[in-house]
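[stage:ingest] chain + small molecule (D-malate)
[stage:ingest] validated
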Amino acid sequence: MAKLNENYLDLKDSYLFSEIAHRVNAYSAANPDKKIIRLGIGDVTRPLSPEVIEGLHKGVDDMASSDTFKGYGPEQGYEFLRNAIVDYYNRNCVNIDAKEVFISDGAKSDTGNITDLFDKDNVILIPDPVYPVYVDTNTMNGRKITYINANAENNFLPMPDPNVHADIIYICSPNNPTGAAYNKEQLKVWVDYALANDAIILYDSAYECFITDPELPKSIFAIEGAKKCAIEFCSLSKTAGFTGTRCGYTIVPMDLKVMTSRGVEMSLNAMWNRRQSTKFNGVSYIVQSGAAAVFTEEGMAQCKANVAYYQENAKIIAECFAKKGIRYYGGVNSPYIWFECPNGMESWEFFDYLLNEVQVVGTPGAGFGENGKYFFRLTGFGSRENTLEAVARIEKLL
Ligand code: MLT
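[stage:predict] done
[stage:export] tokens:
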């Protein structure tokens, strides 16, 4: 009889956003006349920018001619895109090398796949609440997780406890779901802690494009020492509206080396390269051609205009809570607004209340962890019209 990976028995029945979609679809089937506004999953609504579309078209045209046709590409990504990302980092005053950049189909896949490089017996430190992918992928591998509390007392920015050891640390900043963002001093404390513990930080910077405060770092590699202890994951999903197009990148520094029990030092860059060349055949040339357009001057300006649109939505939602005297987090430097459910309601109860009463869909905090039980998340990724209508409905209800 085939033996299964029974760690799957330790997972919740369904992934958070599948559960939400299931509940919303059931409500919609029972109430076909109601207009539902979805501010739950952080999915973009603006079309791809004209430069990106042109880049995609160029990719398609290249595939139509034998001179420019591409078969299998490099598993690490085409040089033109890796170099464009290096330039982007340089413009933000962070030095990286093209060999450290690996193109992927998004940060979700890579934050899950990276677990391939690590032994089962690591102490995994994950903040609670957190993007559920970090927890679920480690649970699938049978790893024990140590949680660190993110809560109102620490402004949802937990700091390391020097008396608690960790081997692998997950940090997402600006944070999904809370919208909180670490400053340089705080991240430096995490880097120093990782170096002192011979630990590795898995840093998810998928929301870096929402940072407007120049004091906040857009990359962990802006912090001294980080190249010896961190891997960074980023995505074009939110930066350039690629949630459906799929493209991201992972930076694995050359300096990141770990001594093994066999006394051989291993390079994580070499390991990730080995893993990717074995299990991944790269992102399609057409998509990478579109992705490269994001980093041109014109492409970046157009993508920033879309991000600014979502930032304004987030501000509109945040202002609604400020007006109502409801304490919230995020809304600036982040597309997410995280707030305490009114009247002591639990988050799934509030989810049903909001859906039934005003047909607005959000994300229950409990889906991100124990500390989210009484919190709720809304996103700025809707259309302006829907955001304004959702806010008007919520204002009336609360
Ligand atoms: C979210 O809503 O938390 C994100 O859109 C999920 C993701 O990026 O995979």
